[in-house]
Amino acid sequence: MIDAQGLDALIAALASDGREVFGPVRREGAVVYEEISSSDDLPKGWADEQSGGHYRLRQEGDAFFGATLGPQGWKRLLHPPKQVLWRTEGAGEETKIIPEPLDTTRRAFIGARACDLAAIAAQDKVLTEGPYRDPQYAARRANLFIVAVNCTRSAETCFCTSMNTGPKATKGYDIALTELEGGRFLAEAASEAGAAQLAALPSRPATADDEGAAAAGIDRARDQQRRIDTDGLPALLKDRPDHPRWSEVAQRCLNCANCTMVCPTCFCTTVDEVTSLEGPETERVNRWASCFTVDFSHVHGGAVRPGAKSRYRQWMTHKLATWVDQFGEMGCVGCGRCISWCPVGIDITEEAAAIRKGGG
């Protein structure tokens, strides 16, 4: 068991180890992940309320990690929205292509939830385990220390239990914390590096009451969640491309791409070549892309998916069905961000249930 002073000592120790330490902070009405220097930077005493198309913070209690998930996943720190791949110098026969140096910055994440750990594992599989390995992602990932936080409350939009990704972290972390009342944390190590950090902190052994309180909090978070029935869902979605629900959701969908931007597992990118206005130098820039844009499926002759119906169907079917064909698991971790941050409140759990009811 550690207390608030132990949490501060952990943050300081990770910084002293040469790491940039990131955690949840309150900015402009939301919880986002930014660099922190102490527990004073955490959103202590704030909780979130979320539903379809709705996100608000409210002051409640005195927990450091009372707010669950904001619009950002940790993805932006490992797989940035925009990154230079290479640049050129010189012109003509003197042109040189210079690869962007690998980002070997040592970082630590504090406050990663179980669903986001599952999302990082999904990105690992996509970006490091296949034949087209992303060297920048791999370099950032190799230098990462993760302090997870088990959820003791869930937002209305959470459904990680249905996806077997939470609310308790089971892997993918160095240290896991479960916050109890009074600023106390049950701390568990899952790596040698994590054990070494915990051993250096002021602490006391956990009692059976401590462990029972932590388990009760996690059970409470589990009971607060909505559900999605995943039994047979991949085959169901692939077998019903003409279900009338696809047209119904298309009438609401704005094609704004919010769901893909906040999703912690979406990995699609495109590249731009940007030429300097002052000389011959050029940069090739990798940036996030979304299957909700017309250009995403544009080939010679036009877009393959020109309308909202086909784009939403592509996104949801890939996330919950064809992702399994590619990577052996669904591409959804049940974080619920796509529900909260959809301007019209489209709910992937409701859409899956509607498709299950029959039709084309």
Provide a compact summary of the structure:
With 360 residues, the chain is α+β, with helices and mostly antiparallel strands.
Task: Using the CA coordinates, give the radius of gyration.
Answer: 22 Å
Beta-strand percentage range: 15-25%
Report low-confidence residues grouped into runs of 5 or more.
Answer: none
Helical coverage, percent range: 25-40%
Structural class assignment: alpha+beta
How far apart the termini lie comes to: 55 Å
Major sheet strand order: 2-1-7-8-9-10
Question: Globular, elongated, flat, extended or rod-shaped: what is the shape?
Answer: globular
| The number of domains | 2
Number of separate helices: 12
The major pleated sheet works out as: 6 strands, mixed
**What is the tally of beta strands?**
14
Would you tell me the overall average pLDDT? Answer: 95
Order of helices and strands: HEEEEHEEEHHEEEHHHHHEEEEHHH
